[in-house]
């Protein structure tokens, strides 16, 4: 098989990452510093923003803490399945989605909200924009070394190359925002499809269909594993008992449940599910505006988006969530004694530049990333979320043949980084 040959050749070039068997000592000065930064930011948000923003910072911190502790990956889950047939992480995705739809259904049906805001899920059109964007994102996350959430928590953990991925993720998102009117207005697309409202199933019927689909996908991954017999993911070192909450690895399925609960809390706090990449477009557009580019004339920044461009970034709920994720991952890495800037290699840098641009551009075209489109879309009962997942898997498959061009391996399942 071609992918197996790629893996064999690359194992000679780049050895598979080895996991330590014991925990490091906590990096106490970093933990104290991170807590101080978090406290200052929290106080600032309480003084200058509405009541939702401080709560979103805390939710973001918990998201980042959870992602890092479990090394909960989307990029690695897709890569393991497509390269060697290991579906353990993808089954964790199905648990996460199963809990999410269970929580989202009553929230969306009855409009539960902490601050009285209107509550709505992510339901987007299905068309050329989605297909191209999700496919590009699938390639980008395998070259860039992370998905949207993975990039944030890897930056928080000190993985140096991911700072480059993040920078060009922002560049790609800004370019995508500039070009988005062409893709959405000139390219063909169907109207958004909700399994709950468009089909007439209601949220109860849509929940049953969703759970059945998650079960089917899990069964398929088990059949693939039975046929290919891939190696299992090795356990990561962890504390025992209650100390495991703060140090060491969390089981993937535990993290899956926690992430689903936190996404539901996000929905009730700001009226929309967890998202990541719209903030990247905002940051990049504000930077372009600073250098004299007339960003306000872009179609993307007309209508409802115009207010975000004119306001402080701290008024943007997605920005606050992103800052929380980075800070939470930083605290988790410091608690485990793992925060350390890694070395850069030329191949990684080039791949991160290309991958970052594809990630950002693809996310804008596809109405979101692995969080907004895949996690949030499917949790919102949107058909586009499922299509996003299929196309991102297709992009992952293509990327298996592109990674060796940059000296990157097609790893065995021991690679647990997103």
From TrEMBL:
Keywords in alphabetical order: Cell inner membrane, Cell membrane, Membrane, Transmembrane, Transmembrane helix, Transport
UniProt keyword Cell inner membrane present: yes
Transmembrane segments: 28-47, 53-74, 95-116, 122-140, 161-180, 200-224, 245-265, 320-339, 351-375, 381-402
Taxonomic superkingdom: Bacteria
Keyword Nucleotide-binding part of the UniProt annotation: no
InterPro entries hit by this protein: Sulf_transp_TsuA/YedE (IPR007272)
Chain positions covered by the region annotation Disordered: 1-21
Pfam family, one: Sulf_transp
Membrane topology: Multi-pass membrane protein
Major location (coarse): membrane
Bias kind Polar residues: ranges: 1-10
Compartments it resides in: Cell inner membrane
Family statement drawn from the similarity comment of this UniProt entry: Belongs to the TsuA/YedE (TC 9.B.102) family.
Name of the protein in its database record: YeeE/YedE family protein
Organism: Salinibacillus aidingensis
């Amino acid at each position: 098989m071609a992918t197996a040959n790629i893996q064999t050749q690359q194992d000679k070039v780049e050895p598979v990452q080895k996991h330590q068997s014991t925990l490091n000592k906590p990096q106490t000065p970093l933990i104290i510093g991170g807590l101080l930064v978090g406290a200052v930011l929290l106080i600032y948000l309480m003084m200058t923003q509405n009541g939702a923003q401080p709560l979103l910072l805390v939710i973001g911190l918990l998201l980042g803490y959870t992602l890092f502790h479990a090394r909960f990956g989307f990029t690695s889950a897709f890569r393991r399945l497509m390269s060697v047939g290991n579906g353990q992480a993808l089954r964790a995705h199905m648990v996460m989605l199963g809990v999410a739809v269970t929580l989202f259904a009553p929230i969306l049906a009855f409009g539960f909200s902490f601050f009285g805001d209107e509550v709505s899920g992510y339901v987007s059109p299905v068309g050329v924009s989605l297909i191209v964007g999700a496919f590009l994102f699938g390639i980008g996350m395998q070259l860039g070394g992370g998905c949207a959430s993975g990039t944030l928590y890897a930056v928080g953990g000190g993985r140096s190359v991911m700072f480059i991925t993040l920078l060009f993720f922002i560049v790609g998102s800004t370019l995508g925002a500039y070009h988005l009117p062409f893709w959405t207005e000139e390219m063909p697309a169907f109207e958004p499809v909700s399994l709950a409202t468009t089909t007439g199933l209601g949220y109860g019927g849509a929940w049953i269909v969703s759970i059945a689909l998650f079960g089917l996908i899990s069964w398929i991954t088990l059949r693939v594993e039975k046929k290919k017999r891939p190696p299992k993911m090795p356990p990561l070192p962890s504390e025992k008992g209650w100390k495991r909450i703060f140090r060491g690895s969390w089981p993937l399925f535990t993290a899956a449940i926690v992430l689903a609960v936190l996404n539901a809390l996000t929905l009730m706090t700001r009226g929309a599910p967890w998202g990541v990449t719209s903030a990247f477009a905002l940051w990049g557009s504000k930077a372009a505006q600073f250098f004299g580019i007339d960003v306000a004339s872009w179609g993307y920044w007309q209508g409802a988006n115009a207010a975000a461009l004119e306001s402080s970034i701290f008024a943007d709920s997605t920005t606050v969530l992103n800052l929380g994720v980075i800070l939470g991952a930083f605290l988790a890495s410091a608690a485990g004694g793992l925060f350390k800037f890694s070395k850069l290699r030329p191949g990684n840098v080039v791949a991160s530049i290309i991958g970052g641009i594809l990630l950002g551009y693809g996310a804008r075209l596809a109405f979101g990333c692995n969080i907004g489109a895949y996690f949030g879309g499917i949790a919102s009962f949107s058909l586009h979320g499922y299509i996003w997942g299929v196309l991102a898997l297709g992009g992952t498959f293509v990327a298996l043949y592109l990674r060796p061009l940059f000296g990157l391996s097609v790893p065995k399942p021991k690679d647990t980084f997103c």
